[in-house]
Amino acid sequence: MKKPKLDVVTPDVGAKTFSDFDIDERLLKAIGAMGWKWPTQVQESIFSLALEDKNIMARARTGSGKTGAYLIPIVHKAIGYATVSLLFRSLTVNDLLLKLLQPLPFLRSLNLADLTSDERTVWENDTANFVVSTPGKILEVLSVRKHFCADVRHLVLDEADLLLSFGYENEMSALKKHLPDKYQCILTSATITDDMSALKALFMTGPVLTLKLKEGDLPGVDQLTQYQVTCLNDEERYAILVAMFKLRLIVGKTIIFVNDTDRCYKTSLVLRSFGLKSGILNSCMPANSRFHVINQYNNGAFDIVIASDATDALHSFPSKRDKESGVSRGIDFHQVGNVVNLDFPTSTDNYIHRVGRTARGRNKGTALSFCTPEERPYLDTVQEEINTQMGRKVIVPYEIRINELDSFVLRVKEVLSKCGKSVIKAARMQEIKLELMRSAKLQSFFANNPREKILMETSTRPTTLAVHSTAIADVPEYMGKPISGCCCRLLCEAKHTANRVRRKCPFSSRI
Fold it and tell me: How many helices (H) and strands (E) does the chain have?
């Protein structure tokens, strides 16, 4: 196969507005309705090239606005002439697409990612200007409609490096055979990898523009504040976490990352014991359950999500890997103010993608990472690489006087003693039962068998720990006194200088 010609472009980005580009007025109205005042760096760099039908391979950090960068030009072109665009993403880009299409009722989108194999009537008859899908789902459609992709004018592979690393190599090769000879191809990712190069060679024909944006993998310190807390063990780790939530030092929407699936349920049980509501996301959950949790989180049902990385969560369950289960990437969480690495990530890439869930676009955010002595080598590696990239020290040590948290430590110690393997197993079983209750396929069964539904509802009550007293969740006044006397309401000092200058708590103001 002849390799496409490659041009490398380093854009010179200035201060432009959306109206500076040749974008339809109705589309500008939809952009304004979302509160977007000016394009991000990646959007400003891609707009003109995408409008000119250039093949683009762009690397931009998580949360930089990549989705809008390719969607806005493609929607604009669809207004002028009938086009078919095929969009691939780890989960869904449909939310933003629907908002852009609100003032354009003559354009239609079809989200195959939400359709089941039973909905063949949609696959066989429906047509749309925009098709959002995963590789496996589009091949199912092609098995019914062989010419479904024959008129594709634009192909977008978002988070492109994940498509091959998640095992989609065969699906992508099969898809290529169904595409027309000529189309525009846009590949975007937070990292440029060998997988990206393989996809470029497979799907791109003609010249390719590779965009190297003048930005780091993470936002600057004026947008993203990063802290690291040293703790000796799990008792201290959970005590500090609970204290910050109960004393409202962490406020707003928060994602807590852990390194495996059992830790998701353990952390949820601990927080629940202290009256803190949360949702769980991990790669062992069915897709419908993950979508349900994301929607609840985005709609404000709870402000805390406990998530495990797709790769880390699969170490104990290699046979249950779900290609579409990425948590730290490819999921649209809304308005995340804080990311907490309860378990320190095992690589710099994992750290970047986790922390990248906050401070997205032009919003500000805070990242807090816990680190035990055993995790210290991971921290040292991440710090060295991130500090080198940013040109300064950005992950700031955040000291906790743990002796002043004795009351929290004692309570957490009791909770952890009740959180054994059997309890975690029971919590995971509850999740399976909840999925059965939400299953659309079982609704008719429950309608005909109301007694079975009642029994299932009774057995799906949340798992709770058998602690000595339910009052363990209460925080008496004396537990807050050591903090209330501090000008920053926190038992902490951030070592920004050798003199340990006392700073305001990073979580004391709403983000």
Answer: 19, 16
Helix axes 421-438, 261-273, angle to 10 degrees: 90
Say if CB 482 and CB 498 are below 8 A apart: no
Tokens 């507005």 locate to 17
CA distances from 261 to 267, 283, 448 (A): 10, 8, 35
Segment (H or E) for 369: strand 365-371
Is there a shared CATH topology between the 18-212 domain and the 224-311+328-473 domain?
yes
* Boundaries of every domain in the chain: 18-212, 224-311+328-473
Beta-carbon contacts of residue 17 (< 8 Å; ≥ 6 apart): 37, 38, 39
DSSP element (H, E) containing 8? strand 6-9
Helical (H) or strand (E) element with 434 = helix 421-438
pTM of the model: 0.71
Q: Cβ(180)–Cβ(151) under 8 Å?
A: yes
Encode pLDDT of 349-372 as tens digits: 899 889 988 987 778 899 999 999
Strands of the sheet with 492-494, listed across from one edge? 279-281, 304-308, 254-258, 338-341, 365-371, 224-230, 395-400, 492-494
What is the C-alpha to C-alpha distance for residues 353 and 361, in angstroms, rounded to an integer? 14
What's the one-letter identity of residue 276?
A: L
Six-digit token string for 374: 């055993």
DSSP secondary-structure letter at 12?
A: -
Tell me, letter by letter, the H, E, C secondary structure of 133-170: ECHHHHHHHHHHCCCCCCCEEEEEECCHHHHHHCCCHH
Torsion of Cα atoms, 51 then 54 then 55 then 61, to 10°: -50
Query: From residue 194, how far is each of 161, 199, 389 by CA, in Å?
Result: 8, 9, 21
pLDDT digits (tens, 9 = 90+) for 27-83: 999 999 988 888 988 899 999 999 999 999 988 877 788 889 999 999 999 998 767
**Structure letter (DSSP) for residue 310:** T
Residues 34/236, Cβ–Cβ less than 8 Å: no
Looking at 3.40.50.300, 3.40.50.720, 3.40.50.2300, 2.60.110.10, the CATH number of the domain 18-212 comes to 3.40.50.300
CATH number of 224-311+328-473: 3.40.50.300
Q: What is the DSSP string of 456-501?
A: HHHHTSPP----S-GGGG---HHHHHHHHTSTTSSSEEE-SSTT--
The Cα 239–Cα 234 span in angstroms is 8
Ranges of residues in the chain with a pLDDT under 70 are 1-15, 82, 89-92, 116-124, 164-166, 191-195, 214-215, 287-288, 310-332, 440, 459-461, 466-470, 478, 480-511
